[in-house]
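Retro notes (design track)

What went well: tokenization of the new backbones is finally stable.
What didn't: we kept losing track of which sequence belonged to which structure.
Fix going forward: every design gets posted as structure first, then sequence, in one message. First example under the new rule, 289 residues:
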């Protein structure tokens, strides 16, 4: 009996030890962010932090490429060399980040692409909202507010990033039947300051009837620009944006600077949940909307 009890005691110690070891093992989740200096990205990082705080076993390492493809490539290579357990990439532009995303995946690191796409299927999963659908919803909304023969100013996000192309395609498809419309594109690169600068360079002697901005920051820049040109028309102009994030677009809709914003979830919580599934060895879908 004594012998049996001591074996049982040893077994318990061993099991308790294993359990502790498992809990104490730190997995590193590397996140390569194309930038962090806007409200939407900051919200994403907040969501990442909140979700990550639910697990003792992970450490999250975030790199900020500060709007630069080359820096992002370099930082992803550092994360690969460091052998992070899961890599999450939000690419600056799709084409330049494609090869390095493939490198990570081929090195055997479970690789989650989020928000902006890469031009390959050599990754583990893509987590992100459907930007084509968002653009389509914006176009459907616009159709209800456009007078005949309207001129629409479309303020593009960065043309080399997939959400800009998809938001454009969805919007145009929704308005396919309106052959009376004129579209004027301008590149705002997703940024308030770039949109503000480019708008100043354009001749608006032919009036604009509607503004579709690919994000709220550029929509806000448009309102300020048109109000500066003509306070009355500038205030009445219909301007729509996307993101609807707190501390930016949501406030702008509430105080009337933007007429409407379409919600683009950051997916911060979802990427960490997905990373945890991968760490547990679970299979995940190739696309997580
Ligand atoms: C933030 C942002 C958002 C936009 C997203 C597209 O950096 O520009 O405003 O919805 O990126 O990738």
């Amino acid at each position: 009996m004594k012998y049996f009890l001591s074996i049982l005691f040893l077994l318990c110690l061993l099991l308790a030890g294993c359990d502790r070891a498992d809990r104490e093992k730190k997995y590193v989740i590397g996140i390569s962010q194309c930038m962090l200096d806007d409200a939407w990205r900051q919200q994403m990082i907040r969501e990442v932090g909140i979700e990550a705080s639910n697990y003792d076993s992970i450490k999250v390492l975030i790199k900020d490429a500060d709007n630069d493809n080359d820096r992002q490539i370099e930082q992803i290579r550092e994360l690969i060399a460091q052998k992070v357990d899961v890599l999450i990439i939000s690419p600056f532009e799709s084409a330049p980040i494609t090869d390095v995303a493939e490198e990570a995946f081929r090195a055997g690191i479970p690789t989650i692409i989020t928000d902006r796409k890469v031009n390959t299927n050599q990754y583990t999963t893509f987590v992100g909202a459907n930007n084509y659908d968002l653009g389509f919803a914006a176009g459907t909304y616009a159709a209800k507010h456009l007078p005949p023969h309207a001129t629409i100013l479309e303020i593009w996000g960065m043309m080399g990033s997939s959400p800009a192309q998809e938001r454009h395609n969805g919007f145009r498809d929704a308005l396919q039947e309106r052959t009376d419309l004129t579209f004027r594109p301008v590149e705002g690169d997703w940024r308030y300051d770039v949109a503000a600068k480019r708008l100043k360079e354009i001749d608006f002697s032919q009036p604009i009837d509607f503004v579709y901005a690919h994000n709220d920051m550029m929509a806000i820049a448009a309102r300020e620009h048109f109000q500066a040109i003509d306070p009355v028309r500038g205030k009445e102009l219909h301007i729509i944006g996307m993101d609807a994030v707190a501390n930016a677009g949501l406030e702008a809709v509430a105080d009337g600077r933007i007429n409407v914003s379409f919600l683009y979830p950051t997916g911060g919580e979802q990427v960490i949940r997905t990373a945890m599934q991968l760490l547990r060895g679970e299979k995940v879908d190739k696309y997580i909307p």
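Added context from the reviewer: The chain has a mean pLDDT of 93.
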